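thought: fold this chain, then report.
action: predict
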Amino acid sequence: MTANAINGFLNFNQKWQNAAELNNPLSVLVLNLMPTKQATERQFLESFNHMKQDVRFTFAYPESHSFKGTSRTAMASSYLKFSDAAQKDYDALIITGAPVETLNFEQVDYWQEFKQIIGWSHEHVKQTLFECWACQAALKVEFNVKKRDLLEKTFGIYSATQINLKSPLVKGFGVENQLRMPQSRHTNIEQTHGVEVIASNDKIGPMILYAPQINQTYLTGHPEYEADTLKIEYERDLGKKQRIQIPTNYFDDQNRIRYTWKRSSHLIYQNWLNLIHRKN
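observation:
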C-alpha cells in the first residue's frame, strides 16, 4: 500500500510523490516536534509506505512553541496549527520526539498545549503513538511517571531482552526475529505503574509500553530512523564538542553502518496500525 502526505514541507516542496490510494486510507495526524522537520516527515512516510493499509498523513505543530530552526511563516505555510487540525477526527495520532528532554516538563514552552492535545486525543482518535520525549511526557501526564537524567546518553541500537509475546504490538517477533530499536536520549522513565511493559532491554529498560484502557502506545526510541540518522547525530555532537559515545551496536568493525532494525520497525508500525482495526 502507500503513504501519502496531505501537507508538510516535502509535500510543499514537491519532494514526496503521493500515489494512488487503493483503499479507504487511514488518517494519521502527526505532531512533528523534531527539529529536522523534512527528515522526520520522510522517515515516517517511508516507514509507512509499505504497510498493509493506505495511510494519509497530516502534519501539525503546537502554536504555543517558539521555533528556533524554522520560521513561523514557513511552519504556517506547510503545517496546520494543532487547533486547526483538531477540528476533525482521525484514525490515529503520532507525537514525535523533541530535543527538550533535559528540561523539566513544565519548562517546555508548549507543555500546557501538549496536555490539552492528549486530552483531545481521548475523544478524537482511535489510537495514539508517542515516541522518545513524547513517550516520557505522555506517561507523566497520564500516569505521573517520572523521568530521570542519565549519566551517559542512551545511544545506539538495542534489542529487546524481554517481550510479552501475548501483546498484538509484538506479533511476528520471537527468538529468531529480534526486536531492535534505535535509541537517542538523555533521560529514562523511573517506574511504570498503570501501563503495560511490552518489550524491554536489561540495560536501558522499557522499549515499548501500552495502555489499552486509553489506546496509547509508547516507544522510548525511534523506529522511524533511517540507516544514517544516528551517524548524522553522532557527527553533529562531535562537531559541537559534546561528550558523546559511539552509538552502540551500530557500526561494524570496518566502521560501516549495520542497518539491523528495518524489519523490526516495519513490524512495530504494522502491529500498531492493526490496533486501529481492532478498535473499529
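thought: worth noting. The helical segments are 9-12, 37-48, 72-78, 82-85, 111-124, 133-143, 229-239, 262-279.
final: C-alpha cells above.
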